């Protein structure tokens, strides 16, 4: 059983129920500003969750310069930080290739932003063709990507890559108004 979430922004320690499952996937924005303290609190929260495997990407609010080293320290607790990286999940029903990337189109000077066009296309072109489960922070164009003004903020190039790779599932967050399945 997979449990998927995003954009929790330090809402931890029982503020919302987290269903039990075999794999927890978090699509970024675990913190407000990514301070070492916020990340450490989030790592503690994740460590205490019962899911044997936790696959995590950063989001635009996860700003700390130390994020990679902090996530590396958490790896012994079943927490796997993916930044333009793949993780193989093997289970009783076969295996899945999971790929995670924190990038999204430029947005307010936050973390993991790249200009639309060639810079983001280069990032998305790294998504392996064999990807079964794709985790990105931002959405593809036209899918749960409308903000309060009605503007569609998703990434055209991500949509093209998702249509090419055709993962079984694509998990993302970032646009709070676009929550849902």
Contiguous helical run count: 4
SSE order, one letter for each helix or strand:
EEHEHEEEEEHEHE
How widely separated are the two ends?
16 Å
What share of the residues does DSSP label as strand, in percent? 15-25%
Strand order of the largest sheet: 1-2-3-4
Shape field: globular
CATH class annotation: Alpha Beta
By helix and strand content, what is the structural category? alpha/beta
Could you report the average pLDDT, rounded to the nearest whole number? 84
Low-confidence stretches: none
CATH architecture assignment name? 4-Layer Sandwich
Largest sheet: 4 strands, parallel
According to CATH, what is the topology? Purple Acid Phosphatase, chain A, domain 2
Rg of Cα set: 15 Å
Fourth CATH level, the homologous superfamily: Metallo-dependent phosphatases
Instruction: Estimate the helix proportion, in percent.
Output: 10-25%
Q: How many discrete structural domains? A: 1
Number of strands: 10
Helices, strands, pairings?
Layout: E1 2-5, E2 23-26, H1 36-48, E3 53-56, H2 67-74, E4 79-81, E5 85-91, E6 94-101, E7 104-105, E8 113-114, H3 118-124, E9 133-136, H4 156-165, E10 169-171
Parallel strand pairs: 1-2, 2-3, 3-4, 6-9, 7-8, 9-10
Antiparallel strand pairs: 5-6
Helix pairs in contact: 1-2
């Amino acid at each position: 059983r997979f449990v998927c979430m995003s954009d929790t922004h330090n809402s931890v320690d029982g503020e919302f129920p987290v269903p039990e499952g075999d794999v927890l996937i978090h699509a970024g924005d675990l913190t407000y500003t990514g301070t070492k303290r916020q990340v450490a609190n989030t790592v503690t929260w994740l460590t205490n969750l019962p899911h044997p495997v936790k696959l995590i990407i950063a989001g635009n609010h996860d700003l700390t310069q130390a994020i990679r080293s902090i996530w590396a320290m958490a790896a012994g607790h079943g927490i796997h930080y993916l930044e333009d990286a793949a993780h193989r999940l093997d289970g009783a029903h076969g295996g899945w290739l999971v790929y995670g990337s924190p990038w999204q189109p430029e947005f307010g000077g936050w973390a993991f932003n790249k200009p639309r066009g060639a810079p983001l296309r280069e990032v998305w072109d790294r998504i392996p063709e064999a990807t079964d489960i794709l985790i990105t922070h931002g959405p593809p164009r036209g899918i749960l990507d409308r903000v309060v003004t009605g503007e569609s903020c998703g990434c055209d190039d991500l949509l093209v890559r998702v249509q090419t790779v055709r993962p079984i599932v694509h998990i993302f967050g970032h646009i709070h108004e676009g929550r849902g399945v």
